[in-house]
């Protein structure tokens, strides 16, 4: 489904942020990537849909190397990968419904998009999605009038509207309170299960990662230093990932 | 990432020999630099005043000249309005409206090309910026002279002159607004596989829309005034009537035209403010 091979990313030549990452993602579970700030978690996840250009390596998604794609082929691949962001990244001045429909832009023809003629089927799915996330009454509300938790639900809905084969989430709960964070994680778990797709989530909250993820990837210094089930996250492993130990107690 | 755990001790540059810690907002070099900037400003002002070569005799009798001019202008020739001003006024407003529309149509694509985030191509950025700077640096009057020479005197020349001069102003402010947009939204739409055109329509446009209308309305306001002056070079509108009246020393008519321009600008200002309040 997704195979990352020897992925290297250097923002500054000679100073790699990712130093040869190899990962295989299958199934329909949540994979959590944890690690200290600045270790390249966001870079890794952004390389998968080429929001960040990889320096070297392969990213094979649905049988094709995303790194080699360009133009409409790249857009097609991107439309198959949903993405959820820490700061929600909604178009603030558009309505909730319009924000959901922007998830379909990858598959809507240029002329229809220009005329704002979205498929009736997409609009139908958008209404269903709003009902699932409990925002039916907010369809015509402007995105900037919503609370953080509501915005993130719109963000997830927009990603689901893409009918993705893979869902990426870059610290989706870092701007939210603990209770809302759990609700958002539950929603992501539900998406993974009902749509039967894998979800890759960057996160800082180790407890939340343990609770929701079936697989944990620990990163440090641009390498994968742990890859396994949450049960294997011993204090020793956490020390390897984050360094130091005073924070553990 | 282990470097974060072994922070070096904080340097203490303010520590003096006697152990008292002092802190100063600027270093000696910074203070010298600031002083020389102030000095340069004072020098530049003094130099400018000197090179303007004010002739004092003209200043001493200025109040006499103003009183004389006021007398010639009073009473204002209100009766002349229907015959000689109204039509010119309508023409001026039309020139302003059409030229703003043309200017906007030409400036928006150039503005998008000039914005580094919307057009990540340095060459196109510089080409667009060159267009913006060059159209702006040529004064409206010069544009008018050019178009009068090409199309002959009249409203068309005036309209094109103002439209071309507007490109630089509208395009520059618009491209800055595009560059100030929230890049996260754009990133999200890119991640959804949106095309360049869809990015502009659904990502950039909703974000720059209020600024766009503010710029367009403000430019219209400026263009009303511009078109009132343009007639001086034979490019139609109120300015033409003004020019004629001045040449014939009909100061009461000049006064009427000035009052008309003033009234139009005030009304434009009120309309623009009201419209802006409603769309932002």
Describe the structure.
The complex is a heterodimer of chains A (249) and B (280). Chain A is of the alpha/beta class and 249 residues long. In chain A, 36% of the residues lie in helices and 24% in strands. Chain A has 9 helices and 10 strands. In chain A, a hairpin with a 2-residue loop joins strand 1 and strand 2. In chain A, helix 3 runs parallel beside helix 6, helix 5 runs antiparallel to helix 6 and helix 6 packs parallel to helix 7. The termini of chain A are far apart. With 280 residues, chain B is mainly alpha-helical. Chain B has a single domain, classed as MetI-like (MetI-like fold), CATH 1.10.3720. Chain B is built from 11 helices and no strands. The longest helix of chain B has 35 residues. Chain B starts with 27 loop residues before the first helix and ends with a helix.
Short description:
The complex is a heterodimer of chains A (249) and B (280). In chain A, helix 7 links the parallel strand 7 (166-170) and strand 8 (199-202).
Q: Please, what is the CATH homologous superfamily of the domain at 1-80 and 203-249 in chain A? A: P-loop containing nucleotide triphosphate hydrolases
**Strand and helix order of chain B:** HHHHHHHHHHH
Q: Assign an overall shape of chain B.
A: extended
Report the helical percentage of chain B: over 70%
End-to-end separation of chain A in angstroms reads 39 Å
Strands in their spatial order, largest beta sheet of chain A: 6-7-8-3-9-10
Beta-strand percentage of chain B? Answer: under 5%
Strand percentage of chain A: 15-25%
Highest-level CATH class of chain B: Mainly Alpha
The outline of chain A comes out as globular
Helix/strand/pairing class of chain A, anyone? alpha/beta
Average pLDDT of chain A: 93
| Major beta-sheet overview of chain B | none
Instruction: Domain count of chain B, please report it.
Output: 1
Class per helix and strand makeup of chain B: mainly alpha
Low-confidence stretches of chain B: none
Biggest beta sheet attributes of chain A: 6 strands, mixed
Question: Count of helical segments of chain B?
Answer: 11
